[in-house]
Q: What sequence folds into this?
């Protein structure tokens, strides 16, 4: 159990520190270019790429939280389970 928990923590850290930062940097760079670009097909493509990156970053944040909730380390099991229950309830109300 402890080994699995360490592995989940490692994956969450790697996803956050490597992948999340890389995606965020790409989004910022594209958004900066979008401000300079003249209207047209390329600007539209960059705008779509920025929007997709925002979705992907949100999905990655959710995955990281599911792998290893920060609340688990900060406030303990009870708070982490309560937060999970709140997120499940909120997701259920959005889908209906």
A:
């Amino acid at each position: 159990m402890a080994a699995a928990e360490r592995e989940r923590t490692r994956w969450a850290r790697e996803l956050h520190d490597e992948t999340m930062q890389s995606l965020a940097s790409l989004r910022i760079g594209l958004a900066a270019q979008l401000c300079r670009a003249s209207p047209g097909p390329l600007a539209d493509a960059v705008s779509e790429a920025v929007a997709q990156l925002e979705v992907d970053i949100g999905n990655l944040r959710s995955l990281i939280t599911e792998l290893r909730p920060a609340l688990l380390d900060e406030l303990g099991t009870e708070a982490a389970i309560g937060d999970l229950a709140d997120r499940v309830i909120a997701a259920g109300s959005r889908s209906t």
Notes: The chain has one domain: 2-95. The helical segments are 2-36, 41-67, 70-74, 77-95. The chain has a mean pLDDT of 83.
